[in-house]
Amino acid sequence: MIKRDTSSLDALRPCFEGFVPSMVATCAPDGTPNVTYVSQVHYVDAAHVALTYQFFSKTRENVLANPHASILVVDPDTGAQHRLQAQYLRTETSGPLFESMKAKLAGIASHTGMTGVFRLLGSDVYRVDAVEAVPGPELQRPPARRNFLAAVRAACERLSGCDTLDRLLDEALTCVERAFDIRHSMILMLDAGRRSLYIVATRGYATSGIGSEIPLGRGVIGVAARECTPIRIPHATAEYGYGRALRESAARSGLAGLLDTEIAFPGLADPGSQLAVPIVVCRRMIGVLYVESGEERRFTYDDEDALTAVASQIGAAIALLQVIESQEEHPTVAATRPAPSGAPLVVRHFAVNDCVFLGDEYLIKGVAGAIFWKLARDCVSYGRTEFTNRELRLDASIRLPDVSDNLEARLVLLQRRLAERAAGVTIEKTGRGRFRLAVSRPLQLQEVASG
Amino acid sequence: MSDPLLDPEDAAFVAGGVTISLASRDDACRASVGRALGCRVAPDRSRVTLFLARAPNVPLLADLARSGAVSACFSQPSTHRTIQLKGADAAIGPIDARDLTLMRVQIDAKVAELVPLGYDEALVRNVFSGEPDDIVAVTFTPTSAFMQTPGPRAGKPLHP
Question: What string of H, E and C letters represents the secondary structure of A149-201?
Answer without folding.
Answer: HHHHHHHHHHHCCCCCHHHHHHHHHHHHHHHHCCCEEEEEEEECCCCEEEEEE
